[in-house]
């Protein structure tokens, strides 16, 4: 049709483009893979260097070399780190710091979940005077993390004699509403009829909490536990302030202390071995809990 | 098993009164269906009986005992919810057993009761499943089972069939009726579906905006509706209402459309010229026989606006000369061929014997003076 009006051919060609002679999927996936590999490298390289570093002797790294292949000092480095500690002062051994960190992180995660769960339960399922006020007061604590109220909180801990105790380490971190809001939103999705059915079945509030709310919140709890465990694990400022007893040292803080201020050579091999050890519990928590909440997410129950 | 009595039940949510004084006596083993439009307070009334809400005024007695102040669990009732409200994380067995477990029944007794109820409902093979692995009909049965195992004094149903497809609904309706008869448990059943109401209830409570407009057997409600609301609510297609005035010394009504209809069942009290509403069901409207209308009939002519063939019958929607609508349900054979653009006029007869007479003001049924 040579005499077709001007716009028509354009429209026609737009509609019937010649089929592409290459498969777009292959090309895209090739590029995608390149990017992904690059990303993997960026994330893995530091971990690899740390891992490799933990298998050489102190002087290799001290010379400024960055070895990319494992050395032979591994077992010895890990033994020293695990049993004796490293750094200039032969600080706390890694096993103790790891134990402290795990206890702290578990207490913080479990404590926060327990408190949030209960307060959200109260706010959602009970009608009492000042209910919304209570909720907003809880909510406001979100805006006051430990870093903001650190001086008064420290003052309180001193007056209570909780400095240098596990309680002093964890309680101020537990007392904020991180998860209350999340649990509240989740509880609001539980149908009223379910609550009423439980009432008719004769379940009191605590029984309802135990038999219905907790099982339904399983996946939320698992996900929150991971997040809050990592939050607790990574605490730095508060432990720095409230604990100076070597036996309560946490691993994040301990690692930082191992690194000197330049007066003398750092024992990078032990430091890196400790760093590798300090990675293991969070990784374990993520991996274990992931199974839990992925299973929960795939078989949704509501 | 027990009687249920409601005495002057009022319920307000904040400033809004939702129930304006409900009185009801339910006999032992009776199935009462509460029917009414959406939002008229049916669920609220049911929830008051269940103890999930507290009445603003009035008393609730179950088996003669005042339970108004008791917790739901202390009232010995079981409820089936519209969305079933099964515990999603428990198996079918767990769902049915939960209430019994809380009451501390022995394990063997619980297992026996659950098995019995499950067999009764045909869900014996599903006891290990979770609710989400069940179809809608099966969930419905589990919800029923959960109510049955409790062996309560009272069953409460809040539109339990409205989430089922039409076929299943009919089937479950019959089944609920059979079960209720067999178990003999006093029941309150809430629905907005008049077919459900008519087929299920020993008696109906027709609710209108927070009041019980009529409490009577399904047949009474159909044949002697207490007011215009009930008359229009029960029956499908809905009853026709025609404006009229009381004439001839109370022995006849003159339709606004013209014809005079004598009352077949007797004289009505009231001043000459009093406003009336005459009701006549579409299935009682007759096609005009050739010739004159009889003495106990009124002849009217309608312009047909819409014809809905249903097979053996046809529903005609027409308009009287004065603009009032009239619906007739006629045997298909008596309906002339309709079609084309031309307006078709059709002569119809309104038999006096099928007439319902209501006062125009207030809408109450106006019975003949004895
Ligand atoms: N908890 C409540 N708070 C305020 N208003 C309510 C509440 N429950 C019901 N209502 C109101 O009461 C009226 C009747 O509701 P309901 O009993 O659920 O009607 P039905 O079940 O007949 O459809 C509605 O107007 C509804 O908005
Ligand atoms: Mg309702």
Brief descriptors of the model:
heterodimer; A: 302 residues; mainly alpha; MetI-like fold; 14 helices; 69% helix; globular; B: 370 residues; alpha+beta; Rossmann fold; OB fold (Dihydrolipoamide Acetyltransferase, E2P); 2 domains; six-stranded mixed sheet; five-stranded antiparallel sheet; 8 helices; 23% helix; binds adenosine-5'-diphosphate; binds magnesium ion; membrane (chain A); MetI-like_sf (chain A); sn-glycerol-3-phosphate transport system permease protein UgpE (chain A)
Topology at a glance:
The complex is a heterodimer of chains A (302) and B (370).
Chain A: H1 7-15, H2 24-53, H3 58-62, H4 74-83, H5 94-125, H6 131-140, H7 150-159, H8 166-174, H9 180-188, H10 192-200, H11 205-233, H12 237-242, H13 251-258, H14 268-298
Helix pairs in contact in A: 2-14, 4-14, 5-6, 5-8, 5-9, 5-11, 11-14, 13-14
Chain B: E1 4-13, E2 16-26, E3 31-36, H1 42-50, E4 57-62, E5 65-66, E6 77-80, H2 92-102, H3 107-121, H4 136-149, E7 154-158, H5 166-183, E8 186-191, H6 194-200, E9 203-208, E10 211-216, H7 218-223, H8 228-233, E11 240-247, E12 252-255, E13 260-262, E14 275-280, E15 286-287, E16 297-309, E17 313-319, E18 325-331, E19 345-351, E20 356-359
Helix pairs in contact in B: 2-3, 2-4, 3-4
The site of magnesium ion has 3 residues of chain B, from helix 1.
Describe the 3D structure.
- The complex is a heterodimer of chains A (302) and B (370).
- With 302 residues, chain A is an all-alpha fold.
- Helices cover 69% and strands 0% of the residues of chain A.
- Chain A has helices spanning 7-15, 24-53, 58-62, 74-83, 94-125, 131-140, 150-159, 166-174, 180-188, 192-200, 205-233, 237-242, 251-258, 268-298.
- In chain A, helix 5 (94-125) packs antiparallel against helix 6, helix 11 packs antiparallel against helix 14 and helix 13 runs antiparallel to helix 14.
- Chain A starts with 6 loop residues before the first helix and ends with a helix.
- Mean pLDDT of chain A is 82; it is low at 1-14.
- Chain B has 370 residues and is an alpha+beta fold.
- Chain B folds into 2 domains: 4-232, P-loop containing nucleotide triphosphate hydrolases (Rossmann fold); 237-359, Nucleic acid-binding proteins (OB fold (Dihydrolipoamide Acetyltransferase, E2P)), CATH 2.40.50.
- Helix content of chain B is 23%, strand content 33%.
- Chain B has a 6-stranded mixed β-sheet, with helices on both faces.
- In chain B, a hairpin with a 4-residue loop joins strand 11 and strand 12 (252-255).
- The longest helix of chain B has 18 residues, at 166-183.
- The radius of gyration of chain B is 25 Å and the shape is elongated.
- The A-B interface holds A 191, 193-194, 196-203, 207, 211-212, 215-216, 300-302 and B 47, 50-52, 71-73, 77-79, 81-83, 85-89, 98-99, 102-103, 130, 132, 146.
- Chain A: It is a multi-pass membrane protein.
- Chain A: The complex is composed of two ATP-binding proteins (UgpC), two transmembrane proteins (UgpA and UgpE) and a solute-binding protein (UgpB).
- Chain A: Residues 98-289 form the ABC transmembrane type-1 domain.
- Chain A: Part of the ABC transporter complex UgpBAEC involved in sn-glycerol-3-phosphate (G3P) import. Probably responsible for the translocation of the substrate across the membrane.
- Chain A: This is sn-glycerol-3-phosphate transport system permease protein UgpE.
């Amino acid at each position: 049709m040579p005499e077709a009006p001007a716009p028509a051919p354009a429209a026609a060609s737009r509609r019937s483009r010649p089929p592409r002679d290459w498969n777009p999927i292959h090309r895209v996936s090739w590029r995608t893979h390149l990017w992904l590999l690059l990303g993997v490298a960026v994330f893995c390289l530091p971990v690899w260097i740390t891992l490799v570093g933990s298998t050489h002797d102190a002087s290799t790294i001290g010379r400024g070399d960055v070895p990319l292949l494992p050395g032979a000092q591994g077992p010895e480095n890990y033994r020293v780190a695990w049993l004796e500690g490293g750094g200039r002062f032969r600080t706390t051994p890694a096993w103790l710091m790891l134990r402290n960190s795990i206890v702290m992180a578990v207490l913080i995660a479990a404590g926060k979940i327990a408190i949030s769960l209960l307060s959200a339960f109260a706010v959602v399922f009970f009608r009492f005077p000042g209910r919304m006020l209570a909720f907003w007061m809880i909510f406001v604590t979100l805006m006051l993390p430990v870093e903001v109220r650190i001086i008064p909180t420290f003052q309180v801990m001193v007056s209570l004699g909780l400095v240098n105790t596990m309680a002093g380490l964890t309680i101020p971190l537990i007392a904020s509403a991180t998860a209350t809001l999340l649990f509240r939103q989740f509880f609001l999705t539980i149908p009223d009829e379910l609550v009423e059915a439980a009432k008719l079945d004769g379940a009191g509030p605590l029984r309802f909490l135990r038999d219905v709310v907790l099982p339904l919140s399983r996946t939320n709890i698992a996900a929150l536990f991971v997040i809050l465990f990592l939050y607790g694990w990574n605490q730095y400022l508060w432990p720095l302030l409230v604990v100076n007893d070597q036996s309560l040292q946490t691993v994040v803080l301990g690692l930082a202390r191992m690194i000197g201020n330049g007066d003398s050579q750092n024992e990078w091999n032990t430091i890196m071995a400790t760093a590798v050890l300090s990675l293991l519990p969070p990784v374990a928590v993520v991996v274990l809990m992931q199974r839990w909440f992925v299973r929960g997410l795939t078989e949704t129950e509501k | 098993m027990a009687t249920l009595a409601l005495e002057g039940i009022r319920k307000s949510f904040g400033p809004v009164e939702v129930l304006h004084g409900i009185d009801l006596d339910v006999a032992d083993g009776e199935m009462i269906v509460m029917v009414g439009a959406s939002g008229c307070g049916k669920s609220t009334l049911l929830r008051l009986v269940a103890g999930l809400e507290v009445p603003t005024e009035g008393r609730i007695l179950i088996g003669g005992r005042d339970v108004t102040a008791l917790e739901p669990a202390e009232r010995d009732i079981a409820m089936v919810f519209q969305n079933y409200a099964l515990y999603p994380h428990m198996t079918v067995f767990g769902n049915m057993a939960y209430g019994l477990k809380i009451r501390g029944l022995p394990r063997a007794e619980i297992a026996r009761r659950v098995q019995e109820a499950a067999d009764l409902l045909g869900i014996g093979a599903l006891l290990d499943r979770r609710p989400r692995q069940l179809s809608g009909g099966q969930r419905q049965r589990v919800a029923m089972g959960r109510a049955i195992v409790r062996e309560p004094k009272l069953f409460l149903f809040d539109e339990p069939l409205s989430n089922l497809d039409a076929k299943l609904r009919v089937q479950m309706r019959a089944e609920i009726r059979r079960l209720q008869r067999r178990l003999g448990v006093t029941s309150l059943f809430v629905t907005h579906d008049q077919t459900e109401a008519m087929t299920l209830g020993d008696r109906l409570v027709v609710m209108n905006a927070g009041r019980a407009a009529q409490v009577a057997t399904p047949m009474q409600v159909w044949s002697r509706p207490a007011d215009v609301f009930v008359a229009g609510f029960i029956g499908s297609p809905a009853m026709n209402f025609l404006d009229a005035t009381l004439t001839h010394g109370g022995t006849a009504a003159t339709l606004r459309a013209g014809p005079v209809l004598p009352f077949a069942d007797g004289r009505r009290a009231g001043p000459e010229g009093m406003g009336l509403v005459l009701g006549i069901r579409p299935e009682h409207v007759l096609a005009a026989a050739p010739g004159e209308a009889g003495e106990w009939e009124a002849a009217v002519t309608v312009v047909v606006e819409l014809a809905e063939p249903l097979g053996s019958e046809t529903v005609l929607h027409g308009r009287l000369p004065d603009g009032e609508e009239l619906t007739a349900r006629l045997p298909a054979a008596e309906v002339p061929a309709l079609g084309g653009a031309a307006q078709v006029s059709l002569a119809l007869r309104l038999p006096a014997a099928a007439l319902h007479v209501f006062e125009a003001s207030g809408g109450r049924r106006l019975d003949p003076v004895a």
